[in-house]
Design a protein that fits this description.
The protein contains 18 helices and 13 strands. The termini are far apart. The chain is an alpha/beta fold.
Amino acid sequence: MFMACSATSSSEREGIINIRPDTDETPVRVLEGYSEAHEQQLRDMAARGPALFDDLARSICPSVYGCEPVKKAVLLMLMGGVHKSTKEGIKLRGDINVAIIGDPSSAKSQLLKYVAGFLPRAVYTSGKASTAAGLTASVVKEPENNEFAIEAGALMLADNGICCIDEFDKMELSDQVAIHEAMEQQTISISKAGIQATLNARTSILAAANPMHGRYDKSKPLKQNINLPPAILSRFDLLHVMLDELTEEEDGRIAAHIVALHKDPSATIAKAPFSMEQLQRYIKYARAIKPRITPAAQTTLVRSFKRLRGDDAAPGSHSAYRITVRQLEALVRLSEAMARVYLSPTVTSEHVAEAAKLLKASILKVDVSDLNMDEDDLAAEMAANMRPDPDFENLMHQHNMPQQQNEAGAAAAQQGDEDMQDADQQENVPPAHAQ
């Protein structure tokens, strides 16, 4: 038995279009709910060609300047992959989980708030004030009849939606373990007070976390910058790092954007390529498409996974964690989401290549470029310091000459003693008996 304390209609929030309905819809069914003007806008958006992906990403949370890789990850999470089920009843999730790790004041919470208001069935929560029961479900006793009932948590309330968890690193380890099942199997199993139930938690998780020491240290790999176990990290399809770069040009652009936003918020947000309503209508239509993997894309998927595994096993690899089959499934979901971006009925090799590029840039090589740059600078500095100085060499040679002469004399005397000992040993050797 499941009891809800309240229910809110999705139509009560004006301007919000439900991009994830309870039942699967076909593209024709979705178009029937659009007007002719909306259909024409959809065609115009799809006609942008290769620039469509970048334009859609820039339309995500236009109040935040830049952060295009993170916005692309959020866009693919909203698109999602294709849910599948085998004949044995095993379900393969199509929802994409995204984690954002970044320095303070890098607009992580702003992105989460935007996603929480993007669709009706979205839940925003903070990891510091969340427990395992609050995220999954709990069993409580009703005061009226003293019977036990299930009280839904954030993941259950966000079923067929998105759960945004801020301050994810502040959660207790026991609370993080509780969402393992919900992140991979998308179910919540309860066995308490005589109640045994398996509840649905078909939701995407968008989590934000801060580095352990306040700011992200680029000289260390990701696993040493964040206090999260590998079991949690491997369940995220994409991991992105937002850094607070100290550059004069970038600081000027960010400051100008923030000042313009405070001066006239509507004009600043209107500069985005698409409005929120246009983005919602496009994503709703794209999610109705169920792209199928072609043989060429299947070959590219296998080759990309082998390359990721090879790069991870190479000496000196700076990957966030070990590459497993979960990353292969993540690559499949990202490829399907990329096909939905372009309204393609099939997943091509180009979609797989773009998805592999995003996966490699986020999970594997999050700080390799900066680390290699630091190593190159360190090697150059060491080579400059090790360059010989003629005056210093002459001084050291004069200083070591008496010591070298003494060592040479001692070696000669030792050699003479060894020759005398060999001669004495030869005299003491008994002569061989004649046959």
